[in-house]
Amino acid sequence: MLFKTDSETKDDREIRRRIHHEADVVIVGAGIVGCSLAVALGKQGRSVLLLERSLKEPDRIVGELLQPGGVAALDKLGLKDCLNDIDSIRVKGYDVIYYGKEVQIPYPEDAGAPGTKRPEGRSFHHGRFIRRLREAATRTPNVTVVETTATELIKSGYTGQILGVECTTKGGKDFYFGNLTFVADGYASKFRKAYIRAPPIVRSKFWGLELKDADLPLPNHGHVILGEGAPVLLYQIGTHETRALVDIPDDCPTASVKAGGVKSHLRNVVVPSLPTCVQSSFLEAIENGALRSMPNSWLPPQTNKTPGLVLLGDAMNMRHPLTGGGMTVAFNDVVLLSNLLSPENVPELNDSKLVLKQLSAFHWQRKDLTSVINILAQALYALFAADDANLKALQLGCFRYFQFGGNCVDGPVGLLGGIIRNPFVLFYHFFAVALLSIWLRLSQSKIWKMPLTLVGSAAIFWKACVVIFPYIFSEIRA
């Protein structure tokens, strides 16, 4: 390797990282992806520099629910103990409440081993989980964590290869070099624009509140509240804390300044749609708690094609956080990528041609899981935030579908939880919902209105196609 000799010891490599700022790998961002990737590569014997702007415990309102598929990936990385000692909550599934009617959606049993314990997710304070991941990275041999602000990527003027990162440390310029530079600096990535053509699409925000000692209808479950407005999520993140996330579209008239702003929307539109047992703690949080927002972004994945550079995490691929799939995608990406770039598969990380070949394989191999989560998140949000008659028909069909139970529940929640990794299963269930929606419309129609109802049924099916196919096409592009 470029920065390693046969006689070099671990101490020599540590000195090289700390004094000369040279390593096999430079990772920008010590978040979900950065920390877990540093641990995975460090365990393989790679020399790793992990750079983070601030090592203070972060405070965010998303990244607080890890689906069972993410828990399994965390276990594969040897990091499952990071879920301990942070007051995390076991999550057994979902409770969907549609205009006051409930349907419980537990995570499914392992299809290959009926009768086994159902998988569980975890929810927690995001910052506490990140702190534990950073502690794990710091303890990992071959990994050096540095508090510094990445400002520019260092690019070879001759080959175009990324050689490392220019940083600012305590007001002074700094430079860190590696055979491979991973950028995992989150949804607001400062480096994305130069290497990914399409910008993220944002049509709404999640506004977050922290409820104290809320009385949830179904403990140890995430709650999805569907009513006249966009969806509301409720899930416990600690013994005494519950996160409320309210989706508000950018052009929502009831949240405009003229109508009284976001707090007025929460009081007048959201509170009446909530279960009675939650309303008092929700109102108290509006009055006394900090109201914060995060953009709900959509960014289709693209193949990394720049030699020496890999964009990962939200810097490379985002979906609506409604389904809580972001961290599941992240940890599974790290499992797959660390295998593809292992010393057995890529002996020298400065072999750009081989690395790019493995990155192309990564782009396509990740799709058995990530395409499911990406498409499901966007399609389900379109239905749950229904703003026209056809979408509302599909929303009703979706709820009625869940009420059938059995595979009508196990299939969708298995996809959502990262347990079922088959895009064709998603396609099947989505159009089963569409056909059920059409049947509900036809069965409620009077005979003399049937011609008009048939036209409306065709419109429902067309709307279903309009909802899902753009996201399918975005996944099959390179």
TrEMBL record:
Report the sequence similarity comment from the record. Answer: Belongs to the squalene monooxygenase family.
The role this protein plays is: Catalyzes the stereospecific oxidation of squalene to (S)-2,3-epoxysqualene, and is considered to be a rate-limiting enzyme in steroid biosynthesis.
- Which Pfam families does the entry link to? DAO, SE
Known Gene3D superfamilies for this protein?
FAD/NAD(P)-binding domain (3.50.50.60)
* Cofactor(s) demanded: FAD
Any idea which GO molecular function terms this record carries?
A: flavin adenine dinucleotide binding; squalene monooxygenase activity
* Alphabetical keyword list: Endoplasmic reticulum, FAD, Flavoprotein, Lipid biosynthesis, Lipid metabolism, Membrane, Microsome, Oxidoreductase, Steroid biosynthesis, Steroid metabolism, Transmembrane, Transmembrane helix
Catalysed reactions listed for this entry:
squalene + reduced [NADPH--hemoprotein reductase] + O2 = (S)-2,3-epoxysqualene + oxidized [NADPH--hemoprotein reductase] + H2O + H(+)
- A biological process from GO: ergosterol biosynthetic process
User: Mainly resides where?
Assistant: endoplasmic reticulum
What EC number(s) does the entry state?
A: 1.14.14.17
Q: What protein name applies here?
A: Squalene monooxygenase
Compartments where located: Endoplasmic reticulum membrane; Microsome membrane
Span of domain Squalene epoxidase: 179-454
| Class of enzymatic activity (EC top level) | oxidoreductase
The answer to whether UniProt assigns keyword Flavoprotein to this entry is yes
